[in-house]
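Standup notes, structure subgroup. Blocker cleared on the manganese (II) ion input:
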Amino acid sequence: MYRPKDSSKSPRFVGPRTFMRLENVRTTEDVDFAVIGVPFDTAASNRTGQRYGPQHIRDFSVLLRPYNPDQDINIFDYCSGVDYGDIDVIPGNIHATYDNIVDSLTPVLDNDITPVMMGGDHSISLGHLRAFHKKYGPVALIHFDSHGDTWDNYFGEKYMHGTPFRRAVEEGLIDTEHSIQVGMRGPLYGPGCIEDARDLGFEVITMREARKMGFDKVSERIRERVGTAKAFVSYDIDFLDPAYAPGTGTPEVGGPTSFEGLEFVRNLRGLDIKGFDLVEVLPTYDSGEITAVAASSVIFEMISLIAIQKRDSSS
Ligand code: MN
Ligand code: MN
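Run returned:
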């Protein structure tokens, strides 16, 4: 049983720093969830430096405590979790990196461990979805982002951080009928940027539509859409308003607060989620660790969902 160090006995500033002070072991024995860094950032279209995202999140995450009052669950009453370390990415070589991601995730998924990946730019999600497809077939995508990331190419390049979900649909990795994107906003190249995602089969709720519906209604809609499908959650930190997550590569104003961004994750309870990623944290632009606080808290809500799934499936 792997649990975090008890920060009421060992001060939380005592290192080395791992996610939530979990043990840094690469094992698939006696593990329910694994937090895994994927420090790849050479498919970003604007700012880079997301390669330092995973460690930046770990640095702040030592503040996390095991009990989630909003879900009334102590994660480690039901789960054993580890910090699995980082996947060896190949800077500048996205295809070799995708291969390494699939190779690294395969034993994790084969042992029914729920992985939570920390990026890295958003291109890495295509690697995650390839690995999930090998294990589960097409999965429902629940995608929080200010961008749809369904562009066809950037600078003629097909594998960039703005294209992973179009590639994933083309490769048959996504069960689009049960998939949904939430939060899209900001200036675009044309109306096609959102319509294309709908044409690919996604339901898309833009940020403006989400505000008008009310966020609780949006959460209801997500649950209806996904239903009982096996799902993957991809959370781009630029989903949050830059006031709450300045440390990212392509910020867009007019987004949700950090409270609202956490509620969206909490409201996924009950869905059959097989894995998560949290991407695009860029420490160089993070002032006062605001983005790291938000990102580590979003991951805390993700692992709380894993604990809830465990609890409810054993009762
Ligand atoms: Mn984005
Ligand atoms: Mn994105």
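Discussed briefly. The beta strands are 33-38, 67-68, 73-74, 81-86, 114-119, 140-144, 180-184, 203-206, 230-236, 272-279.
Next: hand off to the docking folks.
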